[in-house]
Amino acid sequence: MNTLHLNDTTEDISAAAAVLRDGGLVAMPTETVYGLAADALNGSAVKRIFEAKGRPMDNPLIVHVAQFEDINRLGLVSEIPDKARLLSEAFWPGPLTIIMPKGSVIPDEVSAGLDTVAVRIPSHPAAQRLLRVSGLALAAPSANTSGKPSPTTARHVADDMDGRIEAILDGGACSVGVESTVITLVGDVPRILRPGIITKEQLEAVIGTVEVDKAVLNQLEKDEKASSPGMKYKHYAPKAKVVLLRGGDDKYISFVNRAHRRDDTVAALCFDEDIPHLTAPYVSMGSVDDESAQAHELFDALRAVDGLGAGIVYAHCPSAQGVGMALYNRMIRAAAFEVIDLPSKRIIGLTGQTGSGKSEAARLLSEFGLHVVSADKAARAAVELDEVKRALCEAFGDVLLPDGGLDRRLVASIAFSTPENTEKLNRITHPVISRLMLDEAEAAEGGTVVFDASQLFESGEDRYCDTIVSILADRDIRIERLKERDGLSKAEIELRMSAQFDEEFFKACSDDIIINNGTAEEFRAAVRKLYERLVRL
Ligand code: TXA
Ligand code: MG
Predict the structure, then answer these.
(1) Is 291 in contact with 327 (CB distance < 8 Å)?
(2) How many independent structural domains does the chain possess?
(3) Whole-number Å distance between alpha carbons of 516 and 478
(4) Cβ(28)–Cβ(130) below 8 Å
(5) If pLDDT is split at 50, 70 and 90, which confidence band does 234 have?
(6) Is 141 in the pocket of ligand 1 (CB under 6 A)?
(7) What angle do CA 469, 473, 479 make, to 5 degrees?
(8) pLDDT tens digits, residue range 18-35?
(9) Quick one: 337 and 366 in the same domain?
(10) Which ligand is the nearest neighbour of the Cα of 141?
């Protein structure tokens, strides 16, 4: 199909109206996002919307009209609740959608079999003209391919819909940028089904108490029914995997920078204020204090991260208050509900090569009064967890002892037999070990804790650290120490050492380094100095 590209002229609006009257599809600008419009009272025209978008048929559409009187005139609802009148006076035309009991003229395709209908009066001048000139009520979901970010420019629409629909009406960039607030007036208490830039507080100022549907901020359980079918689908997703990082601003920056150092497909979806501190490629959503700007930028930003060629995008989590609720709602869906809570504690990562004296440094820091979280201890606890034992059996076969405990020697022999198996083991255990360490850190007393981890970088635990300290020593000295301490042969020691990063790597990735080539007293003094530097005594 050859898609017509139209502008906001009298002639083009008439052409678009003619397409709609003939049962065709027109992408139209609204102040929120572009909508994919069809004659709402023509079931077969509406059906084509679902086909063009690849939208599940059980997800109902919003019906757009030019003015409040049209709702009754066209028989769209069976009853207009009083609160709908109040909301209309306050917010229409504008970015609000109201769900009411549906009228009998509404085809099943629009309401997806529900007994309600969603109605909105858009304020965008081109949408207003199209509605008036066509004389129709227009069913219009966002004009994106289902699952992708909603389009906020005609270019976005063309990227998804060219060749699939009759016409695209270009009305410039949408001023709001996120979809309308959806509120249902069916039920005892009005309830927000989708947050937008009209906030809960604004609505309550007009109609009193308003609830927020659980699905707005939380993931539904598998068998839970969504009040708004659209809430249950994966949404707004760029091709890259998105992970939401929740927590302090400094932590966000250090997390992303350290992740990027190890993986150059890492990118940031950030605020303007983060930009000067980031070393990873980024797309900004605007200033941290300007939520309207963020709403305006969000979908463009989600589409733009794919332009960076990113494999994984760490998004800076907005607050879920006010307009922020609308942003959070979209972002958590773009992230498929994958959220990392950044620790509130200051974390010192302590690592180093085998035989360098890292464990002694940990012991000393603990003696000086810091809480030390041991990765080895967390690793031992992790393999006792049922979820880990199950995953290990799935990966390596039956690796349990008759009493149900893990056969550690068997696991070790399988896991270290090939690099692929080692990788498999790490993929199963590292995230759990990190989680246990983070939990312990949060529960610990004091504002600063130490992560004692020889595999700090391999596990990704480095990303949670504010400061990283590596303990290093000359190779020959380390070999002598290991011979003495662990009674290992030179060959065994060499093998262990070859599995670790080299000194250059530790130096490049650390903020502080102690070279431990001297006596125990010298080392103690060096660690004491480090401690004082770190906790600023
Ligand atoms: O800003 C907007 O609302 C844009 C512009 C084009 O108006 N439209 C839009 O439509 O975002 P769409 O289809 O992408 O989102 C409509 C949402 C979906 O989550 C859908 O499940 C919900 O509204 N919805 C529609 N009718 C409903 C109903 N009767 N009951 C509950 N939820 C409904
Ligand atoms: Mg949509």
Answers:
(1) yes
(2) 3
(3) 9
(4) yes
(5) low
(6) yes
(7) 130
(8) 999 999 999 999 999 999
(9) no
(10) 1
